[in-house]
Every structure is written in structure tokens, then in C-alpha cells.
Design goal:
about 350 residues; alpha+beta; 2 domains; two-stranded antiparallel ribbon; 7 strands; rod-shaped; membrane; kinase activity; transferase
């Protein structure tokens, strides 16, 4: 507990201790001078360091934060000169009340002005300059952290919005499918409602966190695919293959649903057998998703797929920057998607 409290101030403590002991280092090399030890000098040196330290922390914690910005620098400058005047006056007192020999020696060597004005001004200026620079550095660090926090909150809000945009689109299509089954009075309508219930439970309650288990996402996709295959007008090929070696990844939810929806949207009509394939493979440090479907509704197939594709691309940029590779190809007959994700294993 004490160590954790002291650690942030350790560099400050070491610095002030060094400054306090600096004038006495010479005694280590010339022990004979200890007999001439001047206790008045020790006292004034201690008070000098105390004044400089007080000024340092007064500036970094009060003066600079309150007066350095927002057109208050005149007050900041006035306060600095007031403190400098006090410091010079303090040095005058230390000279004036010093032993007579020391005072006369200073006068005889004509260094009174340097000792009284120049020296204190340099020391005081270094103190103010250092503390102000440290304050500005800390302010910059705080601003960077604030900008990061704002960016994270913005990203989280944007991701939430993107999820909300995906889910109603999915729900709309699925409800249309169920309505189609009910109109046919199909015995499979009850099963489709159950699968929709599972899908909605997943979307509403299980994807609130940042990531989900890969296996759980696969269950969601499987339910969706089975729900879609219930309404196939003509029997065809709908394949969903998942590599058994993929079992220990955490992934962002609802990344693949758009491509699965698209495959059924453009890969089913009332006259032709569908040919739809979904595949998940394990690759080095990640997974590979492939989707391929025969294009049966060519008249409604558009080059720009609208908000769905825009959303998934934006989500990938936000969630997997420099860790994904998305390729979309479509020929006259087939539409193919390949998505590589670099993931961290648990």
C-alpha cells in the first residue's frame, strides 16, 4: 500500500534529496573541511530548497492550471514576479544575517549583485520553467487519454448503431419467411417460430458483450440457415461446413449473418435449384469464412449492396483493424465472399 502510494512521487523525492545534499558532496573528498562546517549555511540552504520546492508545486498544482490558459497569463506572469521578488528578498536576508566574515567577503569580491539578483533569478527561472513544462506534459497526457476515451465511446456507440441496423433487417426478412410458411399452412411453421425464438434470444441477450464464443455464433448461423431452408421452393444444395478444429476462439457477434442472408436473398427463386455453400476453416492464427451461391435473381442483384455491406465493412474496420481480409467476387453466375480473420486463441 505504502509502496504504491510512494512510487509515483519517487523521482520527485530523489531529485529533492539530491539537491539538498549536493553542496555537501565535497566533504566526501575533503573530510578536513568538516571542522569548518557552517550550520548557518545548512539552515539557509535547507530553507532555500524548501522555498524552491514550495514554488515548484505551487506552480504545477495551482498557478499553471488556473492561470496559464484562457487569457490569464498576465496574472500568471505577475504571480511569478511576486514570487521572484520574495525569493530575492529571502536571499537578501540570508546574506544580511550571515556571519560578518561571510558578508564582508561577498562585498570585498564585488559579487553582491550576482549573489543577490543573478543567482536567485536563474535558480527561480529554472524552477518555474521545469514545473511549467511538467504541467504541460501532464496536460498533454491527460488530453490524449481524454481523446482516447472519447474515441472509444464514439466507436462503441457506432458499433451499437451498426448492430441495431443489422438486426431489424434480419428480423424483417425472417418474419416474411414465417408469414410465407403460415400462408402455405405448412407443418414447419411451428418449427420456424422456435428457431426464430432461438435466434432472437441470441441477438437480444447474448451479444450484449463485446465477444461471443465461436461455437455459439455457429449455432446462431445454423438456426438461421435451417430456418431459410424450410421455405426452399425447389430442392437443391445448401451446405454448411465448420472445421472441427475451430473451438477456442472468441469473436465479435453477427459478422457473418449479412453474407448468409445475401446468399439466400439472391440464391433462391421459384424455378431453379439453389446452390449455396458456407464454410469455416481454421487457418494459422485465425479462421477463414467462405460463402458461395449461384445467382438466381440476377435482375435484382445490384453492385452496391447498400447498408448491409457498408455496415459489415465498417464493423470489420473498427473491430479488426489490420486483422482481416475481405474479398467479394461475383461473376455472371456466382457470388463469392472470402473473409479471413486473425484471432487470439483463449
Amino acid at each position: 500500500m505504502i509502496k504504491r502510494f510512494v512510487k509515483p512521487y519517487l523521482s520527485h523525492i530523489i531529485t529533492w534529496v539530491i539537491l539538498l545534499l549536493l553542496p555537501f558532496i565535497g566533504y566526501l573528498y575533503e573530510p578536513k573541511k568538516i571542522s569548518d562546517f557552517n550550520f548557518y549555511f545548512v539552515k539557509t540552504h535547507f530553507l532555500n530548497i524548501l522555498f524552491i520546492a514550495t514554488t515548484f508545486y505551487l506552480n504545477i498544482n495551482f498557478m499553471a492550471p488556473k492561470y496559464f490558459f484562457e487569457k490569464r497569463r498576465i496574472k500568471f506572469t505577475v504571480l511569478i514576479f511576486i514570487l521572484l521578488a520574495i525569493y530575492i528578498f529571502f536571499n537578501y536576508l540570508t546574506i544580511h544575517f550571515s556571519p560578518v566574515e561571510g558578508y564582508k567577503k561577498i562585498e570585498e569580491q564585488n559579487i553582491f549583485f550576482i549573489r543577490l539578483i543573478i543567482g536567485p533569478t536563474i535558480i527561480f527561472s529554472l524552477c518555474i520553467l521545469t514545473s511549467t513544462m511538467l504541467f504541460l506534459y501532464e496536460e498533454q497526457a491527460k488530453q490524449k487519454e481524454l481523446n482516447k476515451l472519447i474515441e472509444l465511446e464514439k466507436t462503441a456507440a457506432e458499433l451499437s448503431m451498426l448492430k441495431l441496423q443489422i438486426s431489424p433487417h434480419f428480423l424483417f426478412n425472417t418474419l416474411n419467411n414465417i408469414r410465407w410458411l403460415i400462408r402455405k399452412k405448412s407443418e414447419l411453421s411451428e418449427e420456424s417460430v422456435m428457431k426464430l425464438s432461438e435466434i432472437l434470444r441470441y441477438i437480444l441477450y447474448e451479444v450484449e458483450g463485446n465477444k461471443v464464443e465461436f461455437n455459439r455464433e455457429m449455432e446462431h448461423l445454423k438456426n438461421f440457415i435451417e430456418l431459410q431452408t424450410l421455405r426452399l421452393p425447389i430442392e437443391g444444395t445448401v451446405a454448411f461446413n465448420v472445421d472441427e478444429n475451430i473451438h477456442n476462439f472468441q469473436i465479435e457477434p453477427l459478422l457473418f449473418i449479412h453474407f448468409v442472408e445475401n446468399a439466400f436473398k439472391y440464391g433462391i427463386d421459384s424455378k431453379n435449384a439453389p446452390d449455396i455453400h458456407f464454410e469455416f476453416k481454421k487457418i494459422v492464427n485465425g479462421i477463414l469464412f467462405k460463402s458461395k451461391n449461384k445467382i438466381l435473381l440476377k435482375k435484382t442483384m445490384i453492385h452496391n449492396e447498400g447498408i448491409g455491406l457498408t455496415n459489415i465493412q465498417r464493423r470489420l474496420e473498427l473491430l479488426y483493424p489490420n486483422k482481416h481480409e475481405l474479398n467479394i467476387n461475383h461473376t455472371t453466375d456466382y457470388f463469392e465472399v472470402t473473409l479471413k480473420l486473425m484471432l487470439d486463441e483463449n
